[in-house]
Amino acid sequence: MLNILLAGVGGQGTVLAAKLLAQAAEEKGWQVRTAETIGMAQRGGNVVSHVRMGDRGEGVYAPLIALGTADLVVAFEPAEAARVLPYLKPGGAMVCASTAIQPVSAALSNTPYLAGEVLENLARIIGETGGTFVAVDDAALVESAGSRKALNVMLLACALSESGLPISVDDLKRAIPACVKERFVDMNLRAIDSAVRA
Questions:
Q1: What residues are paired with 6 via a beta bridge?
Q2: Could you report the per-residue pLDDT of 93-147, keeping only the tens digit for each?
Q3: Among 8, 41, 48, 77, which lies 20 to 30 A Cα-Cα from 86?
Q4: 54 exposed, middle or buried (CB, 10 Å; 0-12, 13-18, 19+)?
Q5: How far apart are alpha carbons 156 and 14 in whole angstroms?
Q6: Can you tell me the distance from the alpha carbon of 2 to that of 106, in angstroms, rounded to the nearest whole number?
Q7: Residue 151 neighbours by CB under 8 Å, 6+ apart
């Protein structure tokens, strides 16, 4: 069983990233289940997507990942990475964007949280369990791709290339046409190539 958790805030494309993973798994002939927990997503609230895949031919009977069992966590924002850290299994991998999106509470209080401190703590905690933590410079990815709209697929491509899991960047690319509108297919494929080269 392969468990992948994706976490971000509304508008970052977390749900689409989960659909791409599910499509890639289905194209490999695996059984897959997904679920989203969405909290005020349209207003910048947190979004968590669960993707469970039967990568060894086993059936997947429940869509939600239990605490401490995620093989991979892909976080589109550092505070959301910290929020879902309890899902990561010991020895698991987390790939996280390095740019903070300030919550309303921080904006109103005039004291923004510092992403660097969050990233350092995540790296330390995950390292202590024998896991892997990769902070991705998402600002550089966006600059190389020329658009923030494809950040979700770029971060997902980085995660798949870093994780060593049995689902590849090529599997992700093959899933794109089935999950995005035709006019956005080329943009997403170019963004994936840009992320993998970075």
A1: 49, 74
A2: 999 999 998 776 666 777 778 899 999 999 999 999 999 999 999 999 988 887 7
A3: 41
A4: middle
A5: 10
A6: 35
A7: 12, 13, 76, 97, 138, 141, 142, 145
Q: Take residue 124 and report the two structure tokens written for it.
A: 């330390």
The residue whose two tokens read 């609230």 is 45
**Residue spans of beta strands (DSSP E) within 10-55:** 32-38, 46-53
Tokens of 49: 């997507």
- β 32-38/46-53 pair status: antiparallel
pLDDT tens profile 157-180:
999 998 888 999 999 999 999 999
Alpha-carbon torsion angle 162, 165, 168, 171, nearest 10? -140
Among candidate residues 158, 142, 153, 146, the one with its CA nearest the CA of residue 180: 153
Mean of pLDDT over the chain: 91
Kindly give, in sequence order, each residue whose CB lies less than 8 Å from that of residue 22, ignoring residues fewer than 6 positions away.
32, 34, 51, 53
Looking from the CA of 125 toward its CB, the CA atoms found within 13 Å total 14
